[in-house]
Backbone:
């Protein structure tokens, strides 16, 4: 189990999921360190925090929602086993208990949030804005419904979140990371190294004689499991999403042009002008100044007389919309080099001078029509998705297969005759008919023939699928995979020879040899890389080499495997210990990250104390039932 968790978190999916978990969870804290926290009680309750009970159905909904959200972010749904391997089950329970504890504290403190504040928060959320840029009630309903919320439940949840933030924001206010910590981490991140290295590949391995029939047969027997035919499944599925339905919809030019006109200013590039401005308290003073300008006084000298610096007078390269409306109208009507008459604005009477004009590019409807129509069609389709989803569920509930239900509703079902767990057909190629980001395959391999499966959330819509047939995994005989076996045998032979060659080179270098001489002896060339940091990806330098270089002392040598069967031998030629510039952007970003980490730690301690004070118990049996740990 532990080995499986380490393996899972070492690949891209594991790293992505763990990054998302850290971003999604408000806090992480040591729930599991509380003694005797698991205690048996009512089977309908997963946990009790003070006077708040987290019911089995409530936690099941929260847990399912969180897994679906993470699945959408990584582009593939998670199985219960994967979720437990990544620790998501306990992470979600930790967060749910933390939120319940904070809710209890908010009630004790008498905190509140007005309906109007919640309303404004929701209406300003960019996720709920339509194509016009304003709050769209239909989009709001479609989005929250897609995440499993009713309007009442969503508003209630946002009110709780707001109150929790009042508490956590107060606790974390004013925290500063220690200077020593900032200094050490900055040096660690900014340290630079330089190396010289040699790449050894098949050319340095030398000739590899063909294996004898006996050797090949013995190799096959030792590695038989690697050549086993995988299990294949025949599946059918139908995709129902705003994007798909939008493809069927026709949007008129009239409707598209209305949206274009509403967004025209944002779609094009506005004209900009370099403008100087002096503001006078009265029209009379402005009129006198304008006469002096006409008589030869320069705009700059006039500004100096009024105690204004060059930066006070120069507004820079600005758009018309950034100015007072009256000033903008006048300034953008002047030719370059001209000075305006006095302009009555909101803050006084102004005189402006236009120095430079940078023409704008007006948005062109013809070039944007296609994108606008697709966006409108997709937006309209969101409403249709909800209706079709209900009809599809009714058909499925009545016993219809995915294919039959799709035909009745005019949807297109896709059938794949054979696909393995990796999404490949028997010819070894990825199945092209599966949409990008839809991992229906892993779901299909966690069910069986004839099972009525739950739909998958996908791109704001849904996917239904059936498993039609299963072809079990089986051992292949040598004749079926002879070419593959021989190719794998050859790769292993090359790898063994390169490993031995690299080890020999490292030993000679440690005894005082030169890398250039060793490279020449095997027909390889010496390459160099310098000034790279731990997280850099220098051109031509494999990531494993960068990592190994930072584990090696100056003038030290080493070897490491690289991609494509290569082995790299390297020497660290220089280590640059950086100076810490506390005013640099990099240090400021690091400080912000540390601030957030310290705040999280402080909040975690606070919530732990809350849980201890008000009492927290967890029903292990109910928790296992929801997360599938008892299956």
Residues:
């Amino acid at each position: 189990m532990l080995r499986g968790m380490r393996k899972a978190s070492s690949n891209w999916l594991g790293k992505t999921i763990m990054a998302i978990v850290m971003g999604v969870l408000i806090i992480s804290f040591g729930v599991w360190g509380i003694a005797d926290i698991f205690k048996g009680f009512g089977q309908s309750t997963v946990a009790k925090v003070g006077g708040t009970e987290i019911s089995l159905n409530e936690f099941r909904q929260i847990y399912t929602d969180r897994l679906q959200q993470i699945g959408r972010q990584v582009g593939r749904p998670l199985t219960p086993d994967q979720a437990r391997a990544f620790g998501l089950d306990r992470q979600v329970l930790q967060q749910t208990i933390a939120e319940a504890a904070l809710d209890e504290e908010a009630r004790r403190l008498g905190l509140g949030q007005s309906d109007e504040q919640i309303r404004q928060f929701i209406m300003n959320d960019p996720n709920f804005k339509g194509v016009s840029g304003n709050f769209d009630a239909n989009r709001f309903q479609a989005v929250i419904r897609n995440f499993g919320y009713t309007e009442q439940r969503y508003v209630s949840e946002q009110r709780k979140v707001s109150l929790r933030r009042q508490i956590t924001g107060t606790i974390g206010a004013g925290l500063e990371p220690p200077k020593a910590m900032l200094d050490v981490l900055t040096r660690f991140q900014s340290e630079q190294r330089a190396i010289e290295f040699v790449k050894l590949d098949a050319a340095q391995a030398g000739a590899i004689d063909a294996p004898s029939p006996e050797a090949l047969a013995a190799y096959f027997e030792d590695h038989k499991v690697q050549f086993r035919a995988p299990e294949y499944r025949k599946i059918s599925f139908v995709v129902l999403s705003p994007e798909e339905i939008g493809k069927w919809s026709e949007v008129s030019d009239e409707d598209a042009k209305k949206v274009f006109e509403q967004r025209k200013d944002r779609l094009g590039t506005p004209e900009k002008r370099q403008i100087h401005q002096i503001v006078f308290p009265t029209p009379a003073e402005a009129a006198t100044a304008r006469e002096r300008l006409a008589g030869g006084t320069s705009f700059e000298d006039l500004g100096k007389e009024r105690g204004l610096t060059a930066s006070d007078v120069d507004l820079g390269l600005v758009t018309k919309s950034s100015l007072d409306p009256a000033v903008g109208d006048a300034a953008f009507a002047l030719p370059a080099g001209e000075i305006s008459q006095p302009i009555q604005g909101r803050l006084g009477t102004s005189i402006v001078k236009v120095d430079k004009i940078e023409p704008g590019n007006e948005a062109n409807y013809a070039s944007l029509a296609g994108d606008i129509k697709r966006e409108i069609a997709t937006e309209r389709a969101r409403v249709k998705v909800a209706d079709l989803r209900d009809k599809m569920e009714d058909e499925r509930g009545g016993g219809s297969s995915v294919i039959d239900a799709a035909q009745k509703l005019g949807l297109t079902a896709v059938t794949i005759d054979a696909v393995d767990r990796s999404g490949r057909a028997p010819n070894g190629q990825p199945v092209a008919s599966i949409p990008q980001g839809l991992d229906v395959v892993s779901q299909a391999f966690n069910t069986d023939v004839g099972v009525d499966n739950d739909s998958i959330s996908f791109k704001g819509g849904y996917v239904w699928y059936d498993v039609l047939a299963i072809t079990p995994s089986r051992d292949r005989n040598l004749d079926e995979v002879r070419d593959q076996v021989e190719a794998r045998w050859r790769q292993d032979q090359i790898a063994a020879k390169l490993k031995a060659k690299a080890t020999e080179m490292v030993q000679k270098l440690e005894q005082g040899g030169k890398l250039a001489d060793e490279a020449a002896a095997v027909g390889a060339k010496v390459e160099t890389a310098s000034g790279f940091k731990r997280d850099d990806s220098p051109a031509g330098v494999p990531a494993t080499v960068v990592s190994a270089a930072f584990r090696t002392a100056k003038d030290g040598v080493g070897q490491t495997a690289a991609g494509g069967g290569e082995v790299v031998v390297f020497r660290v030629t220089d280590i640059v210990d950086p100076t810490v510039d506390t005013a640099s952007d990099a240090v400021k970003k690091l400080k912000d990250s540390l601030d957030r980490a310290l705040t999280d730690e402080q909040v975690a301690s606070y919530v732990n104390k809350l849980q201890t004070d008000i009492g927290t118990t967890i029903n292990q049996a109910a928790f296992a039932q929801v997360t599938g740990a008892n299956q």
Observations:
- The radius of gyration is 33 Å.
- The first helix runs from residue 2 to 10.
